[in-house]
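Prompt: For my understanding, could you write out one protein's sequence and backbone structure tokens?
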Amino acid sequence: MASAGAEIAGEFVQHRDRPDPATLIGKGKLQEIAGVVASVDADLVLIDHELSPSQQRNIEKEVNARVIDRTQLILDIFARHARSREGQLQVELAQLEYMLPRLAGRGIEMSQLGGGIGTRGPGETQLETDRRKIYRRIRHIKQQLEDVKRIRRQQRQRRESVPLPTVALVGYTNAGKSTLFNVLTGAGVLESAKMFATLDPTVRGVMLPSKRTVLLSDTVGFIRSLPTTLVSAFRATLEEVQRAALLLHVADVTSLSAHDQQNQVESVLKDLEVMDRPQIRVMNKIDLVPQAQRRELTNTENTVYISAQKQLGLDNLLSAIDGHLEIDALQKMRIRVPQSEGKLLAQIAARTHILKRSYRDSKVHMDVEAPESLARTLRKYEVRPRSR
């Protein structure tokens, strides 16, 4: 709720064997909530569950206050953080599709400018209750999103014409993905302790210890029971995850719910059909772990402990990424390049590990480890061992 700018006046928890079909929660608990709402003069009641339109209306009648469910809250937070045109379109589409079955009895509310939680968003408040307008707007947004996807596809095809593998950051919201992204790439992505601070996908290049370059992609944070409408609306954004050669699953090592959060992230990855991709577990925020415990943390082939904030363990992470990537694999070569080829020599210096170098007969003799994308260019300069 704090991420949406709300002040919490009280909390209630109820455990039931099965939800009440009319109000989700029991009548006794509902009356208890209504009493507290009246005593503290609360403006809003949030139900941490998805509500059907009828359940939402029934609860509102009982508590005499506006009621929203977790999907509507998440949409509100998304609307706050969407910066790109694509992100704004995706949020509006999800809002409209959520709103359609809930229009009955909401004419006055929908015709007013939205300022409260759950009413914020591009354009939705001007649509009133005219379903035809909403359907027309949905069709228009979907067409615009198709245009965005086409442009993104063209950009991706241009990227893929040069064999640069994509490494995607995934993880529970507020695990530190954007902080890590900024440290590794020097990008200015918003870093925030609030949920869903990153909504729009960002891609930047990163050079690995092998001098191979990869594209690092920052993505929206996952949460428990991510609503299916949001997964659908943001599928275009999550395409970067589906295209990735390697996933960096960033987790908050200090979280008391780390295991549950891991399961939630893996659930979304299963929905995206990418669980078969190579993964590195990046255990972030070790600077918040007591020194005695920190000494017991051991990196493995698939798990690396870091602090993005304090820039601890990043060399180990980059080396682990290097070791997992098979695309643009390194090749050892012995080459002989004329000194007049200044541009190629500069490229060799920038993109290869030079193991040995000498100068003879106006040529540079080198043993190098070069990525396959550059090795193809260097083959014409390769020195083959003499056959006996």
